[in-house]
């Protein structure tokens, strides 16, 4: 798996700014994610391609440590320049190759500070300790003594591929068998591409406040998702034509479920049937496809209507009773009780009991 160490070596927090500008840069998190991916995929060899003028020594130290922790082989290729902090990263390689046109540079750590003599003394002590930390990576690779490395770092030493190989900083020169001689160049002016901190802070503020960018990006992603979903849909006709076996399987499953559901519906309607509602029951079972609940409501509604019709008929018959004129025979005689009248009437009809 390939890991590219390109552009300035920066902190994780600055990576987003460089990406926004489209400027190549390398942070520890960027490298760690690639290493993690290699481990998950059981990759046992990393190829680290370096073309960087350096940057943050602490970020470089973190990257160096992650590469050294990798259990497989780490092959480093210096294809352009490995200067300053980038040269520290290069030392993590199990083997280090360098292009015949490349350069490697080591120097003392530097920083800027402000304050009185105490602050200056403190900063000097801090930088010397950083230098010692850097030397440790060079010592592990070259086997050189710290005093010798100190001289090289004090002098800000630039090395061609041949010089780097002779000093033990690299193992081999790329294409060495194909090239008859290696050119030695004058020290070039290094432009490591590190953005001024003021620019980084300004862009961070702009990114944090730029709500429009976030909304547009979100909408764009949603549109892409919607388009993808539309493309992924397939009609029944397309499924039947492209995969008839799957179509038949889905069809048969749906048919079985449908038959089972219909049987259950009809049984539920049968359970609520009662005499006098045959027409509603048959219509629900074979015509409308109504549920048992809907059918029950229809029956209640019909019974309510029948009840209302019966009450209307009773009221009409009761109203007609007022138009009937009673006959003398149907009227009790003076002084005759109702009970005697009823008995005499029954006797006259041959139905009396006395």
What is the level 1 CATH name of the largest domain? Answer: Alpha Beta
First-residue to last-residue Cα separation: 125 Å
Strand content: 5-15%
Global geometry: elongated
The biggest sheet, with number of strands, parallel, antiparallel or mixed sense and barrel status, is:
7 strands, mixed
Q: Based on helices, strands and strand pairing, what is the structural class? A: alpha/beta
- Reading the helices and strands in chain order gives EHHEHEHEEHHEHEHHHHHHH
Q: Tally the structural domains.
A: 4
CATH domain fold name of the largest domain = 2-enoyl-CoA Hydratase, Chain A, domain 1
SS element count, helices: 14
CATH superfamily of the largest domain: 2-enoyl-CoA Hydratase, Chain A, domain 1
How helical, in percent, are the residues? 55-70%
How confident is the prediction overall: mean pLDDT? Answer: 80
CATH arch. level architecture of the largest domain = Alpha-Beta Complex
**Unreliable segments (pLDDT under 50, ≥5 consecutive)?**
179-191
Number of strands: 7
Computed Rg: 49 Å
Organism: Sporosarcina luteola
Protein name: ATP-dependent Clp protease proteolytic subunit
GO molecular function: ATP-dependent peptidase activity; ATPase binding; serine-type endopeptidase activity
Family: Belongs to the peptidase S14 family.
